[in-house]
Amino acid sequence: MTRLIKTPCLPSGEVLSCLIGERYTQEIKELTDLGIECITLNRSPLLEDEISCHADILSFNFGNGQALINKDTIGENELKKVGITPVFYNNKICSPYPNDIPLNVAFTGRHIICNTRYTAKEILDFASENNIEIINTRQGYSKCNLCILNDRAVITEDSGLASLLKNYQYNVLLISSGDIFLSEAHYGFLGGASCKLSEDEMYFSGDLSSHKDYERILELLNSYNIKPIYNKSRKLTDFGGIIQLTEKIC
Questions:
Q1: Which phi and psi (to 5°) does residue 19 adopt?
Q2: Nearest residue to 66 via CA among 85, 39, 79, 80
């Protein structure tokens, strides 16, 4: 049986469908081989090429079939076929920063983590209407910068974000930056290079073992019984992650 995911980045069953940027053909193949339907997001000409079709820039899933999507990146019917009712975000998402971060918001179930100054009003309203506490951070790329293991444990390269979340009783692993490919000009983040595929599996795009903090990352994953899935034949890459939509239930 299939159901809509309640907390998008934290599926409890096996993920069956997701949003992903159209250019990430290797990731799409790997995820498809794992039985996941990949619904692609078109590139936006208003964004820098390196993030032009990142799912975590172009979309935000509220859960339970409601999603906020940047206009012109996907057709409504493509989402409706998996049970998603989209609301299209009509304000401009464009480079440079901070004009590209209205939807780049982390949602752990317990908290919405974002820079409230630039976050889409629809997301702030959603938090208010559902009594979800907002954690305001100066880090605008909060979704990119957080590899979310569960509703109480995260990994990040951002020291300010790490300190802030520890105050909210998160178990935070602060790792070094620079080992994740984004483009020839910039490095990426582990949050954008990863995604949960089930309660106990996490996908990484490329060779996780190449990261200088691999052993520390693996130790934390093991402490929560999360199995990493990754391909050692290519670079660890920030591809904007996926937006999980539906999952399998027994």
A1: -100, 140
A2: 85
CA neighbor of 232 nearest in space, from 200, 209, 201 = 209
The single-letter code of the amino acid at 7 is T
In the 8-state DSSP scheme, what is residue 115?
-
CB 33 within 8 A of CB 231: no
Query: Has residue 138 got a pLDDT over 90?
Result: yes
- How many whole angstroms from its chain centre is CA 91? 21
Q: Is residue 133 helix, strand or coil? A: strand
Structure confidence at residue 249 as a pLDDT band (50, 70, 90): confident
Q: Kindly give, in sequence order, each residue whose CB lies less than 8 Å from that of residue 71, ignoring residues fewer than 6 positions away.
A: 88, 89, 90
What span, in angstroms and rounded, lies between the C-alpha atoms of 49 and 107?
Answer: 26
d(CA 196, CA 165): 20
Report the amino acid identity of residue 31: L
Q: Report the 10 Å Cβ neighbour count for 194.
A: 29
Residue 81: how many CB atoms within 10 A of its CB? 12
The confidence score (pLDDT) of residue 76 equals 87
Tokens of 223: 């402490």
Give me 193's structure tokens.
């290079």
Long-range contacts of 158-166 (CB under 8 A, 24+ apart): 161/113, 161/137, 164/135, 164/137, 165/113, 165/135
Rounded average pLDDT over 114-131: 98
Longest dimension (CA), the chain: 45
The pLDDT tens digits for 7-22 are: 989 999 999 999 999 9
Beta pairing class for 85-89 and 106-107: unpaired
